[in-house]
Structures are given as C-alpha cells and as structure tokens.
C-alpha cells in the first residue's frame, strides 16, 4: 500500500468557486494523482490511475506549490504548473487570476464560461493525467498558457479569454470526448 497525500485548495480568486481536491498515492518512485471536486472523487481517481498503471511522471509532477495551500486559479493551469514543476505563483498563474477577476467574472457570458469550465476542468485534467504522454501534453499546454498570459499582461483581456477558452475547448475535444 502506497503513501497517500491529500491537498485541497480553493479555486480561482479569493476563494471564489469550488474547492479542488488532489490525492497523490506515492509508491517507490511512482506517483498516482487524482483530482476531484470532493476528496472521495480525488481518491477514486488516484486509485483508478494506480490500478491502471497511469502514474504521473516521476520527479516532475506535483512540484512547485507556493506553500501553505494558497488559492488555485484553475484546474488545468494548476495541473499544468504542477506537472512541469513550476510554482503556483508563476506569471501564468497570476495572469489567470487577473483574467478571472478583471474580465471573466464581470460579464454574464464570462460567468457562464466560468461555470462551464468548472464542469470541464476535472475531466480534462484526469484524461491528460491518465495518458503515458501526459508530460508532453502539459508542456504543450504550458506554451499556450504563456501566450494567454502575454495577452492578459498587455491588458488585452478579451483576447486572453478567447485564447484560454479555445485551449480548454480544444483539450476537451482532443482528450475527453473520445473517452
């Protein structure tokens, strides 16, 4: 039986939104991660990954928490940063917090996207984490997040929102809908 670690973080800015639970099972040099809106969902997903042999890449997944269980901008951004070993206070993460606060939550359509994303994010992360090529996928996602962050930091929130929305819809199409 492997060692279980559990973390829980409120998503998006200042505790707005649901809590993201992450369960990590560590066995020798392998980690099996599960994400969910509840602890039991995260545990089930971690156990499912362990039983199917879908481990996170050794040595690079789960790194980079900014310590103390701070708030989590979003499911995909957080999972991506964890997977490639970047801190959750990275430029990309901070940019996503700005986008959420300054643009997404200020309009009806943005709030609608926010709610839809809350439903899609966990499935996207779980689908990517279950793949052998997850590390390569996360690197590709990170490059797209850098472009989103550049738009946001130049205060082109509409463009950043559209880029992020296209990223999420593309990941859903590629990894979730075929399951």
Could you outline the blueprint of secondary structure elements for this entry?
Elements: E1 3-10, E2 19-27, E3 30-36, H1 39-51, H2 75-84, H3 91-102, H4 108-129, H5 134-153, H6 157-176
Antiparallel strand pairs: 1-2, 2-3
Helix pairs in contact: 2-5, 3-5, 4-6, 5-6
Describe the structure.
- The protein is of the alpha+beta class.
- It has one domain (3-176).
- It has helices at 39-51, 75-84, 91-102, 108-129, 134-153, 157-176; strands at 3-10, 19-27, 30-36.
- It has a 3-stranded antiparallel β-sheet with strand order 1-2-3.
- Helix 2 packs across helix 5.
- The longest helix has 22 residues, at 108-129.
- The chain is globular, with a radius of gyration of 15 Å.
- Residues 8-18 and 57-73 have low confidence and may be disordered.
How many helices in DSSP terms? 6
As a percent range, the share of strand residues is 5-15%
> What structural class is derived from the secondary structure elements?
alpha+beta
- Globally, the shape reads globular
Mean pLDDT: 76
End-to-end span in angstroms?
Answer: 29 Å
Helix-strand sequence: EEEHHHHHH
Binned, the helix content reads 40-55%
Topology, number of strands:
3
Task: Please tell me the total number of domains.
Answer: 1
Largest sheet: 3 strands, antiparallel
Give the radius of gyration.
15 Å
Spatial ordering of strands, largest sheet: 1-2-3
Low-confidence stretches: 8-18, 57-73
């Amino acid at each position: 039986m492997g060692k279980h670690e559990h973390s829980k973080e409120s998503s998006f800015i200042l505790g707005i939104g649901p809590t993201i639970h992450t369960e990590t099972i560590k066995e020798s040099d392998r980690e099996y991660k599960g994400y969910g809106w509840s602890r039991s969902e995260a545990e089930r997903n971690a156990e499912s990954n362990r039983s199917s042999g879908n481990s996170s890449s050794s040595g690079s997944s789960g790194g980079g928490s900014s310590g103390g269980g701070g708030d989590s901008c979003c499911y995909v951004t957080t999972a991506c940063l964890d997977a490639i070993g970047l801190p959750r206070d990275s430029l990309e993460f901070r940019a996503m917090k700005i986008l959420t606060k300054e643009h997404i939550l200020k309009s009806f359509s943005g709030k609608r996207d926010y709610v839809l994303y809350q439903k899609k994010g966990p499935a996207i992360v779980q689908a990517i984490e279950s793949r052998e090529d997850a590390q390569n996928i996360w690197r590709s996602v990170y490059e797209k997040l850098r472009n989103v962050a550049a738009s946001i930091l130049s205060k082109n929130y509409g463009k950043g929102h559209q880029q992020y929305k296209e990223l999420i819809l593309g990941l859903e199409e590629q990894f979730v809908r075929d399951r």
